[in-house]
Amino acid sequence: MQHDEFIGQVQHRARLSSRGDAEVATRATLETLAERLAGYEPFDAASQLPRGIAEYMQHRDAGMGERFSLDEFFRRVSAREGVELPQAVFHARVVMEVLQEAISEGEINDIRAQLPEEFNPLFEAGSQGNMRVNI
Questions:
Q1: Which residues are registered as beta bridge partners of 38?
Q2: What is the DSSP string of 71-103?
Q3: Would the pTM count as exceeding 0.85?
């Protein structure tokens, strides 16, 4: 998947008004995910992503394995994206849906193996499903 296709899919599925908004949502979600993952996992995932998108998973705090809840994940995405929490939750779900199409199933499984079960709905709800969040 190319950069423009990734961002275009996020924009379309999240019903965002601009590619810039889709880029911000993508960056906020992937940077936060990269902080939650430990070791080289964010870099392994980034190796399968197009330039530009990959950089969001290769920042200074990537691979730190910082332990935080799914609720905290959404709060961080919301703050980074500069949108209200319900919007950030939906945007993060969309980004994760597109991410799962952009990288291999094995890589997604490696990512999910590092996250507690409470993160499962983030990978399963996608842009169409329902998701309960305790925020």
A1: 64
A2: HHHHHHHHHHHTS-HHHHHHHHHHHHHHHHHHS
A3: yes
